[in-house]
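Sequence only, no structure available. Ideas?
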Amino acid sequence: MTAAAVLLVVGLLAGCARGHGSAATTPSSSATPSGYSEMQKKVTAAESAVARADQDASADR
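Reply:
I predicted one. Tokens follow.
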């Protein structure tokens, strides 16, 4: 994984976690927390970006 991809993922995860408490905190009920689907979309987008960055890095070698 390239350094740029790592920074992208870290930045996205930090942005998603801001204002939502610790990532290790579990909800007190079994209900899905509000904003969960939006965060899930952001994580999916970040994973896709990392995969593309890995492909670009592999192609450059």
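The longest helix spans residues 36-60.
Hope that gets you unstuck.
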